[in-house]
Design goal:
By secondary structure, the chain is mainly β.
């Protein structure tokens, strides 16, 4: 399950070498119009093809063998760019990371304010021009204490109180997206595979105003006789953070395209009264993963953010693995023949696919390698 970690306590570096484990850092920015960007940089991301399968077969691999960086962008609630890039060279020095041609930094100043800066560069299959992205976010450091989790725990910590954030995506001469909104940042780490944490299903979401972020984390244990666990974190713009285990009321679930359940409204019984989180229909819809736009009213003000859901037992199943490979840019080699349909801007993807096919055929690349 999930253990709360303290934001001032770094993830243990020895997680990098523990077979089956994972580490990931997450940052997003979103506005009221449904424009947003999500960036995840990771070692051992559980969703990479082959990782969960190897762990289930008893031959797990260490996170340090699988560095990757991911970006998804949305315009008006619709995907407009996507990348999941495996890299060969990645480094981590305190609050600075490099993943191939992308760099990310995390800095705290003497006043307790945190700055996140990401300068990202992704190759676009079928195009000579890379996708260039910059993401910045600034806010107070959350202030709370938490005991050091057990060594085998899934450690989670929110790292940024609400504050201004900005993202800009460019491909060639075209500005694909520019977003000013509220930022969010957290991180996860664990020495065990995601499917070994006792989770049948989890749903996470955050909504923010300029002065407040509410995070809800709902875990459904894989034992039928155990009740779901809900943790709510309440972050104020000065860093003040409180946690609650409120009562939760959910409607009957809807079903996404591949059968994943989702709940359109979460009724949270918080000390201030009921707060309702409204989930829009999925903007990313897969067999084991969903992402939604999330809306609420906090202190009489509109609040916006993202929500995610995952079914760990469905991750990296044999029938799904070839489909996931279509979305993943490998560290070396050409990757799937269908990669341009999923990697890069949505605009122009069919033209890039034809260019990609023509280029590979000229080089004599066999379909068997995709």
């Amino acid at each position: 399950m999930l253990d709360l970690d303290a934001p001032h306590r770094p993830l243990p570096r020895d997680l990098l070498g523990i077979p089956g484990g994972f580490l990931w850092w997450y940052v997003d920015v979103v506005n009221a119009n449904g424009d947003g960007v999500v960036v995840i940089w990771s070692w051992g991301l559980p969703f990479l093809p082959g990782r969960a399968d190897a762990a289930r077969r008893g031959v797990p691999t260490a996170p340090q063998t699988a560095p990757s960086i991911h970006l998804t962008a949305y315009r008006a609630g619709q995907p407009c760019a996507y990348h999941l890039l495996i890299v060969e060279d990645a480094t981590w020095r305190d609050g600075a990371w490099s993943f191939g041609a992308s760099t990310l930094t995390f800095e705290r100043d003497a006043d307790g304010l945190t700055d996140i800066r990401a300068s990202l560069r992704f190759p676009v299959p079928g195009s000579d021009e890379p996708l260039i992205a910059t993401v910045t976010a600034r806010g107070a450091t959350p202030r709370y204490d938490a005991p050091d989790p057990p060594s085998d725990a899934h450690r989670w910590a929110p790292m940024l109180a609400p504050g201004p954030a900005h993202a800009r995506l460019v491909h060639g001469d075209a500005v694909l997206l520019e977003v000013n909104g509220i930022g969010y940042h957290d991180r996860n780490g664990c020495p065990k595979p995601l499917h070994n944490l006792g989770l049948a299903h989890w749903v996470w979401g955050r909504v923010s105003t300029p002065t407040r972020t509410l995070i809800a984390y709902l875990s459904f244990p894989d034992a039928n006789d155990r009740e779901p666990l809900l943790l709510v974190a309440d972050l104020r713009d000065d860093g003040t953070t409180t946690f609650h285990r409120p009562a939760l009321s959910l409607p009957e679930p809807a079903r996404a395209t591949y059968g994943m359940p989702w709940w359109s409204a979460w009724h949270l019984a918080l000390p201030e009264g009921e707060v309702v989180l409204h989930l829009a229909p999925p903007i990313d819809d897969g067999p084991f993963y969903l992402r939604h736009l999330l809306h609420a009213t906090l202190d009489g003000r509109p609040a916006h953010g993202f929500a995610e859901a995952c079914r760990p037992d469905r991750v990296d199943t044999p029938w799904m693995r070839p489909l996931v490979r279509m979305c993943v840019q490998p560290a070396s080699g050409p990757g799937s023949w269908w990669l341009p349909l999923f990697a890069g801007p949505r605009r122009g993807r069919w033209r890039r696919l034809l260019a990609w096919w023509w280029s590979r055929r000229r080089r004599g690349t066999s379909c068997a390698t995709s």
